[in-house]
Design goal:
The complex is a heterodimer of chains A (438) and B (229). Chain A is built from eleven helices and 21 strands. By secondary structure, chain A is of the alpha/beta class. Chain B has a four-stranded parallel sheet. Classes of the chains: A alpha/beta (438), B alpha/beta (229). At the A-B interface, strand 5 of A face helix 6 of B. Chain A: It comes from Pediococcus ethanolidurans.
C-alpha cells in the first residue's frame, strides 16, 4: 500500500488530549464515557478507558492526532452507474434528503420495512460525491454492512469504497465513500460531510450513548447526518417535534400495499401450557391455516430457552410439518435460513435474531409472548415487517400472542396504523399522478 | 456489579446474618460461570518442578532438562492452567492493557501466595522502562492485592529486541539475562529466602534468569509462584 506523507503536502497534524481529568472523575474523549477516577487508574497517576478498549486502548500516556479533512478526491466523470428507476415517493424523499445535505442539516428518513431505502439513497450519495464531499454509510450490524457493500459497489462502479468493521483484515484506506459499522465511527474526528446511519433503532446503536457520541464526532461541524429507520425511537421523534430534525416519510412499500396490521390474541400462561405440550388454540389455528395453503411461517419466542419445548409442542400436533429452531449461537444458522429460503422447510421457530435483515417472500408470522421485555416496540414492528414483502402476496397474517397489552405492543400497533394512514394520505395527494410502476 | 469478563449483572445472595452482624463482604467482580471456564491446577497432579498440569507428581520432561543444565535449587508453583481461555484473558489484561481485569484473579492469587509462602521477601518480576511507557502498569504487581514486595531487580531490554512472548521456544531459551540487582540491596537479601512472582511460566527461562541473579547476590533459596503454567 502506498503511504502518503502528509507533512510534505503541507497538511498539519493536530494534537489533542485523549482524556479529560477533573477532581473526582475522568472522561474519555473518544467515546465520551465518564468514570470515577479510582476505577480506571493505572499506577503513576495515569488513566485509561475500559469502555472502548476493543478499538485499542485510550490512555493518558498518549495523545490523539488528527488531520483536517482535506477532501482531496479525484473528480470522476460519472459516479452513479445504477440504472434502475425510483417510484414517485422514493423520488420525493430523495429530493428532500438532497436538500438537507446541501444545507448541512440532519434528516430523518422514516421508511417502512421493505420500502427500498438503499436505492433511494443513491441520488443523494451521487450528488454529495459530485460536490467533492466525503460520505460514510454506517450501520450497527456487520451483516448489514457486508450486504450493503456489494450493492453500493454495483451502483457506483468507478468509486473506490472502503469497508470497515471489527473483523476487517485489510488496512485502512482513505476513500471518498466509506461503509462502516457504527463502532468504527469512534475512530473518526470531523471527517465526513455526509454521514448516513442505517437502522438507527437496531441493537446496539439505539441503547448506546457511546455510539451516538461517535456520530456527532465523526461528521464535520458543517456536515449533515441522515438517519434511516422503520421504527424511530422516542429520542428521534422528540427532535422531529422540536423541529431540530427534518423528516421524510416513505410510508408505502415498493409494491404500494400497506403494511399488514397486527392481530392480538390474549392467552394467559402460554408458557406453562406450551411447556405441558399443549398447543394453545390461536397458535394451532395459525399453523393450520399455513399448512392448508402450504405457506411458510416464522414463530418468534422471547428467549432461547423457550425454543425446545415450543418445537416439541408444535411437532406433536403437526408431525408432518418440517420445522426447526434457529438462535444466535446456532452453528447451522445460515444453513437453516438458506433451507427456509429454498422452501425445504415449512417454518422456523426463532428468537429476535431474525427480526430484521432477512426476507422470506410471502410468509406469516406469529410472536409468542409479545409482551415480554425482550421485544421492544421497534423489534415488534420489524417482526411484523417480515410479512407481505413479495409483490405476489403483499398481505399476510401477523399474530401476537400475549397475556396482556404491554406498552411496546400498543406502540407497535399504533406505529403501523400511523404509517398506513400516512400512506393513504400520500395516495390521495398523488391521486392526480398515475401510480408508479410496482 | 457487572462481571468484568461477560458484562452481565452478578446477582449475589446476601446472608441474613449479615443484617444482624455487620461483616465485610467482598463484592465479587467476576461471575461464577466465567470463573468456571478457567482450570485450576491441583498439586497432586502437577509437576513438582514447574507446577505444570499433568497426570502425576513426577518431574516433567522440561524440568528434567533443566536439572541437567543448572546446578541450583529452583521450584515453581502455579495456580491455573495456561489454556485457551487463560491466553485470551492474558491478552486482554496484559497486551490490550485492560488493567481492571486484575481484579479477576488478584484475590485468589494473593491468597495462594500467602498460603504457600515461607519466604522472607516477595519479589515481583519487573518490566522494562519501555513497557512502563506503553502499558503503564506492571502486570504482576497488579495481581497482588496487599502483599508487601521489595523492588530489588531491574530489567533492561535492548530497544530492538523482541519480547519473550513474541519469540519461538528455542529463541526464548537462548535469551540472555536482562536482570540486574539494585545496587543498594545486596546486604538486605543476603542469606534470605526469596519468592519470585510472575504471571506466566512458559519455558522457565525468564524466572531462572532472575533466580540466577538473586543467587549470585547471595540469597539462600529462590522459588517462584506464577498465576499460570
Amino acid at each position: 500500500m502506498k503511504t502518503r506523507n502528509w507533512k510534505d503536502e503541507g497538511i498539519k497534524t493536530i494534537k489533542m488530549p485523549t482524556m479529560a481529568v477533573n477532581e473526582s472523575r475522568v472522561h474519555c474523549l473518544r467515546c465520551n464515557t465518564w468514570f470515577v477516577k479510582s476505577l480506571v487508574q493505572l499506577p503513576r497517576q495515569e488513566f485509561y478507558c475500559p469502555a472502548c478498549i476493543q478499538l485499542g486502548r485510550v490512555t493518558t500516556l498518549e495523545n490523539f492526532f488528527t488531520l483536517k479533512e482535506p477532501n482531496q478526491f479525484k473528480q470522476l466523470a460519472h459516479y452513479l452507474t445504477w440504472e434502475g428507476k425510483l417510484t414517485e415517493s422514493q423520488l420525493r424523499c430523495s429530493k428532500e434528503v438532497i436538500h438537507s445535505f446541501n444545507h448541512g442539516r440532519d434528516h430523518l428518513l422514516w421508511a417502512v420495512t421493505g420500502a427500498g431505502k438503499t436505492e433511494m439513497l443513491f441520488p443523494g450519495i451521487n450528488e454529495a460525491l459530485q460536490a467533492g464531499k466525503r460520505v460514510c454509510l454506517a450501520s450497527p450490524r456487520v451483516d448489514v454492512c457486508l450486504e450493503l457493500f456489494p450493492r453500493l459497489q454495483a451502483a457506483f462502479k468507478q468509486v473506490d469504497i472502503a469497508l470497515l468493521h471489527g473483523r476487517q483484515t485489510e488496512p485502512y484506506r482513505y476513500t471518498q465513500l466509506t461503509i462502516a459499522t457504527t463502532h468504527q465511527l469512534l475512530r473518526f474526528y470531523h471527517a465526513f460531510d455526509v454521514l448516513i446511519i442505517d437502522e438507527v433503532d437496531a441493537f446496539p446503536y439505539a441503547q448506546n450513548k457511546k455510539l451516538l457520541y461517535a456520530t456527532t464526532q465523526a461528521k464535520k461541524e458543517t456536515g449533515s447526518c441522515l438517519f434511516l429507520t422503520a421504527t424511530p425511537g422516542e429520542e428521534l421523534l422528540k427532535k422531529v417535534r422540536q423541529k431540530q430534525l427534518a423528516v421524510s416519510y416513505l410510508p408505502r412499500r415498493f409494491h404500494g400495499f400497506p403494511l399488514p396490521e397486527i392481530q392480538v390474541k390474549l392467552v394467559l400462561n402460554w408458557y406453562s401450557k406450551m411447556y405441558a405440550q399443549k398447543l394453545i388454540r390461536p397458535l394451532k389455528k395459525f399453523i393450520k391455516n399455513c399448512q392448508e395453503v402450504n405457506r411458510q411461517f416464522l414463530i418468534f419466542v422471547p428467549h432461547i430457552k423457550h425454543l425446545p419445548f415450543v418445537l416439541k409442542a408444535v411437532a406433536k400436533i403437526f408431525p408432518s410439518l418440517k420445522i426447526t429452531t434457529v438462535f444466535s449461537a446456532d452453528e447451522q444458522r445460515l444453513e437453516k435460513v438458506q433451507a427456509m429460503r429454498n422452501h425445504e422447510i415449512d417454518g422456523l421457530i426463532t428468537t429476535t435474531i431474525l427480526e430484521r435483515g432477512v426476507t422470506f417472500p410471502g410468509i406469516d408470522v406469529c410472536v409468542l409472548g409479545a409482551d415480554d421485555d425482550t421485544f421492544s416496540s421497534a423489534a415488534l414492528v420489524q417482526i411484523a415487517g417480515r410479512v407481505g414483502r413479495s409483490p405476489k402476496r403483499p398481505t399476510g397474517n401477523v399474530l401476537f400472542i400475549c397475556a396482556g397489552l404491554s406498552r411496546s405492543v400498543k406502540r407497535a400497533i399504533q406505529q403501523i396504523k400511523f404509517v398506513n394512514r400516512k400512506a393513504k394520505e400520500e395516495e390521495h395527494a398523488m391521486s392526480s399522478v398515475s401510480p408508479s410502476d410496482t | 456489579m457487572q462481571c468484568l469478563l461477560c458484562h452481565r449483572q452478578i446477582r449475589e445472595a446476601w446472608p441474613l446474618g449479615s443484617l444482624i452482624l455487620p461483616q465485610r463482604k467482598r463484592i465479587s467482580t467476576t461471575c461464577a460461570e466465567c470463573l468456571g471456564t478457567f482450570h485450576k491446577i491441583r498439586l497432586k497432579t502437577s509437576c513438582v518442578g514447574c507446577g505444570r498440569h499433568q497426570g502425576s507428581k513426577n518431574l516433567c520432561q522440561d524440568c528434567q532438562k533443566w536439572q541437567a543444565k543448572v546446578n541450583y535449587h529452583f521450584v515453581n508453583h502455579a495456580l491455573y492452567q495456561y489454556d485457551a481461555t487463560m491466553k485470551q484473558y492474558m491478552h486482554d489484561y496484559k497486551f490490550q492493557g485492560h488493567y481492571q481485569l486484575r481484579h479477576v484473579f488478584a484475590r485468589v492469587f494473593s491468597q495462594f501466595i500467602a498460603a504457600q509462602s515461607k519466604a522472607d521477601y516477595l519479589v515481583a518480576l519487573p518490566i522494562d522502562d519501555q513497557t512502563w511507557q506503553t502499558r503503564g502498569f506492571n502486570q504482576v504487581t497488579g495481581l497482588l492485592e496487599d502483599l508487601q514486595t521489595i523492588e530489588i531487580l531491574n530489567m533492561k531490554r535492548n530497544a530492538d529486541e523482541k519480547r519473550q512472548s513474541q519469540k519461538k521456544r528455542h529463541e526464548r531459551l537462548k535469551t540472555s539475562n536482562h536482570f540486574q540487582i539494585d545496587v543498594e540491596c545486596p546486604e538486605q537479601i543476603k542469606d534470605k529466602q526469596i519468592l519470585l512472582l510472575d504471571d506466566v511460566y512458559t519455558t522457565g527461562r525468564t524466572l531462572r534468569h532472575a533466580a540466577e541473579t538473586l543467587y549470585a547476590a547471595g540469597c539462600r533459596t529462590v522459588e517462584s509462584i506464577t498465576l499460570c503454567r
